[in-house]
Amino acid sequence: MSKDLYDVLGVPRGASEKEVRTAYRKLARKHHPDVNPGDRAAEARFKEINQAYEVLSDAEKRRKYDKYGDKWEYADQIEEAQRQRGQRFSAGGNGGFQQFDLSDLGDLGSVFSNIFRGGGAGTRTMRHRGADVQQPVDVTLEEAYHGTARTLELLSTEPCPTCGGAGAIAGATCHACQGAGIIQRPRRLEVKIPAGVTTGSKVRIAKEGQPGAGGGQKGDLLLVVTVRPHPRFERRGDDLYEDVDVPLTTAVLGGETEVATMTARVMLKVPPLTQNGRAFKLAGLGMPHLGRAGKGDLYARVRVRLPEHLDDRQRRLFEELQGAGV
Q: pTM above the 0.85 mark?
């Protein structure tokens, strides 16, 4: 039996989108492979969490899951078969899912056989494009700056080669597909994530989604990007903000200070009497613009660093400044 996706995320069936998203982020952080290096159990749990979120975060997929349970991926095929036969699905229990009764449909394998083969004699199967599949993916700010790649493990659904999608051989259930008429094969797909992506960006990989009904075109795979927070840089659109420590003497008298960028370190000229919090714009040193040339800007915010210790002479000098009303 497949695990209940709501149980995987630890949310009730009536959970809101926000509750689902919050639960996913909390669990994803806890079980992320970067946090648990070498822990295969955590890696498997992370994949399980992502798979559950992929379904429950998508309104249409969630509707299908609530209705058909772990058969939700075949909802389009099932409903097409329902329309063709004029049959109704029976309501079931089992956690509140609407279950379909195989006896109402006859042999499920024959339904899939019609779908994959385009229908039998006297049957005209309507073609429907398959649903898009969303897959969350986390990237670092450095990866978002340079662009990166991910290798995904996917399951390809295809007609069972043993029974040709019929689900049975000589009247007996096909053991290769357990009568379903289809099989799933694991495969790997390397996808490129372009420079400039931000949280919420979607990278589309054509025809890598759910198979269509009646021989229809497959849907697309959509990678939904989340850019992780960075310890140094704050991102606002394609601009970056950074706090730069400046000694008190440099802020008062002027000078230079070092500023880190995404690719190198540069020297910033600090004019005399620079106030704490002042931001200096370094043009073109921000994030790349997604899908077009150019970059945003980097803003270096001055954080005046006060001395932690004073010797007697330094104290007297500050007392003199204080006496002068500086």
A: no
- Tokens for 161? 């080669």
Q: What is the pLDDT of residues 92-144, one digit of tens each?
A: 333 334 443 433 444 444 444 444 444 444 445 567 788 888 889 999 999 99
Buried b (16+ CB within 10 A) or exposed e, 261-296: bbeeeeeeebeeebeeeeebebeebbbbeeeeeebb
Tokens of 142: 């450095």
What are the C-alpha distances in Å from 319 to residues 250, 253, 305, 315?
A: 19, 18, 19, 6
Write the pLDDT tens digit of every residue in 164-194: 777 888 778 888 887 777 777 788 889 999 9
Question: DSSP 3-state assignment of 240?
Answer: strand
| Strand spans (E) along the chain | 133-139, 148-159, 168-169, 172-173, 182-193, 202-205, 221-227, 234-236, 239-247, 255-260, 265-270, 279-282, 298-305
Return the ∠ at Cα 289 (arms to 285 and 291), rounded to 5°: 150
Closest listed residue to residue 262, CA positions, set 139, 142, 149:
142
pLDDT band at 37 (very low <50, low <70, confident <90, very high): confident
From the CA atom positions of the chain, what is the Rg in Å?
A: 29
> pLDDT, tens digit, for every residue of 208-229?
887 776 667 888 889 999 999 9
Q: Give the C-alpha separation, 160 to 182, whole Å.
A: 5
The Cα 84–Cα 135 span in angstroms is 32
Give how far Cα 73 sits from Cα of 19, 61, 130, 226, Å. 23, 8, 10, 25
Start-to-end CA distance of the chain, whole Å, equals: 76
46-57 pLDDT, tens digit per residue, is 888 988 988 899
